[in-house]
Amino acid sequence: MVANRGAIASAKTRSQEIELTETLTSPLALGSKDPQNLAILREFADFWKVPYTLDQLQDGDQLFFTAGLADGAVSPEGYPVIISPVGIEEAKSVARQFGLEVFKEEALLHLPVSPGTFVSLKTVLNQFSGSRLKPVLKDGSTTILHQILGSRVHVLSTDLVSDYYQLIYGRLDENPSWKFRILAKAPFSYDTIPSCIRNRIFRTKKAIAQFREEMLGPVECLRAIFLASLVVASGKTIPRIGFWRRGKTYTLAVSHDVETQVGLEDGASRLVEVERELNIRSTWNIPSDRYPLSSQLLTYLAKTGEVGAHDTKHDGRLFFARYKDKVERLTQCRERLEILAKSEVRGFRSPLLQHSREILDAVGKAGYKFDSSVPSWEALSPTSLKPHGVGTIFPFSISGIVEVPVSLPQDHQLIRVGGLGVAQAVDRLIDVSRWVKGVGGVCVLLAHPDYEFGLEGGPEEYHRLLQSFRSDPSCDIVTLGELADWWANREQSQINVTEGKASLQQINSRERADRLELEFVTAYGSEGFKVERFADSNVIEPSRGSEK
Ligand SMILES: [Zn+2]
Q1: Quick one: 234 and 87 in the same domain?
Q2: How far apart are CA 394 and CA 376, in angstroms?
């Protein structure tokens, strides 16, 4: 990890936290001339669940966040403004407007989010310079947010909109390598090629087992910049909804892709035994037509945890099928598994973690409620034969379903491709999970009963791995389906700010939604966000400066 370069909240208060006493009294206003850019800004606000509006500004003190130069953003007095220029041309217009210079600057940003935990992003900044600028949010010598002196206007050097779009949407469509195309389109199924040859084709050197924050969660860095900017530019406390149920800092979901009949009939029982001992329920993703399935076993797995779909034949061809055929194939898969497992099959996991916008659309169309096929980051994607991932460790909604990224490196990559021993792989997984905990995200574990964890000697190490989560009271452990439901519920909930009161508005049943938590971000400094929670109430009357 890069050494702590200490992000600061203001040039004057280096390495101190600014104390904020007032809470946002009206919702954040979002604006952009471009509807697509505005949609991305909404995704930032929706992620944190910061109350926002797209309406005209009403309150003279209302914070206005705009992608590019929206009307009214140049007012030198009045409400506080944050401008995030989209693209270099827009950055130049902003520079002209305020008499600044702008240049491109490559940067590896590294920002604290909680004590000892950093998020990181490799990017190109639209960096501004000029005598009227005062840095108010910095990473070492790199300024992230400038204030224009004599005004309440702030300018971001990070292009939040373009970077976010490129990371989340740009990476959903992975381009298969020619090697993969040949393998997948061969007249025989790609998995009849001996796995030693496949692994050699898919093998690269050391990089496999290296997981750095800028690979696993660059999107988390963008989100942190968004929230930190709100805190710094408004000088107020920002209300948000906590990610997980009260008292929990992060979440674990255990999932298994069952590749072979031996894995189902042999390996699975070994893993189930470990999980039962620790009172953990998991998700079993099963191909519907690859090997003979015992209804008894599937019913059992659906009872102890849940059964998810893992394609029909698992032959790598789903990616290349026409849309109509994708939907048909995915529907058949779900229906057959539902009959065998005697329970609803709500989730899909794509073979080889293949993914594309079209597959996600088809998954939704075929009646699934969630998908978990996109890695946060993999050193070597079996499809593109390159490092690949969507760059976030949080679920997100897309194509009408919830996507739960596979956030932890899967056993196959660590052990069979990366060459780690089982114990080393467990150490690495625990390492990565500590970072996820610091960020407050989701650990999605993918362990195959067919591979080392399900073989002789594996269950002991598997136990050590799961025990590290079970023994941590701040970790919530749920199935993928429960996680998707939780996230969908949080997405539908919101904070209302009216008459100086922040209150949590819940759409779903009180019982579930009551466990959501209203939080207040009171400061941003070298230890990340300072967050306050109020245990007993979900309606908070924010303190006002005058009442202090
Ligand atoms: Zn598989």
Answers
A1: yes
A2: 9
Please count the other Cβ atoms lying within 10 Å of the Cβ belonging to residue 11: 13
Domain holding 55, by residue range, is 1-172+217-241+494-548
Q: Which residue has the tokens 């698992």?
A: 314
Same domain? For 148 and 59 the reply is: yes
- What contacts 471, CB < 8 A, 6 or more positions away? none
Q: How far is residue 346 from each of residues 132, 157, 418, 483, measured CA to CA in Å?
A: 56, 42, 32, 12
Look at residue 206 and tell me if it is in a domain.
no
Please indicate, yes or no, if residue 185 is contained in any of the structural domains. Answer: no
Q: Give me ligand 1 centre to Cα 63, in Å.
A: 48
pLDDT at 76 over 90: no
Contact yes or no for 62/86 (Cβ under 8 A): no
The model's pLDDT over 473-505, given as tens digits with 9 standing for 90+, comes to 999 999 999 999 999 999 999 998 877 677 887
Neighbours of ion ligand 1 (CB under 5 A): 257, 259, 351
Is residue 272's pLDDT more than 50?
A: yes
CATH code of the domain containing 102: 3.40.50
Cα of 259 vs centre of ligand 1, distance in Å, is 5
* CA–CA dist 494, 502 (Å, integer): 10
| Cα 416 to ligand 1 centroid, rounded to whole Å | 14
Say yes or no: 4 and 132 in one domain: yes
Asked if 518 and 293 touch (Cβ cutoff 8 Å), the reply is no
pLDDT value at 196 more than 90: no
Query: pLDDT tier at 1 (50, 70, 90 boundaries)?
Result: very low
